[in-house]
Input
Amino acid sequence: MATIRRNGWESVRAVVPGIRWSKRCLRRRQRLPAAESGWGLSDAQKPQPIGQVAVEDLPRFLTGSGELDRVLGGGVIPGSMVLIVGDPGVGKSSLTLRVCADVARAGRKVLYVTGEESTRQIRMRADRLGAVA
Output
């Protein structure tokens, strides 16, 4: 683990066997007032009893997978991220690619990002699933 200081910011870099990643600390050596830094908490972010938290229905769009839409509470909230996890080989990439194709066919823009598969692997899976949008 190493700390790198540049322009008053501190970055923490860690090396995990086989995986290299870095995480930036939002910590500045020179302390700024909360209002100036933008790191102050708004009233909505301050701790409050759960019963006093305002709940509103956010617009959602359907993914084309009824079961996934059900698990997500009625679809995906625009601007949100959905993390799909599971053991190797259970079909995470296939499910994701199929859902992305269905969403694209419905007229929405989709960006499929992967750090493990080549574009050739993705295309072959898309052909197999009929998911070339």
The longest strand covers residues 19-28. The beta strands are 2-6, 9-16, 19-28. Residues 14-39 have pLDDT under 50 and may be disordered. Residues 66-129 form one domain.
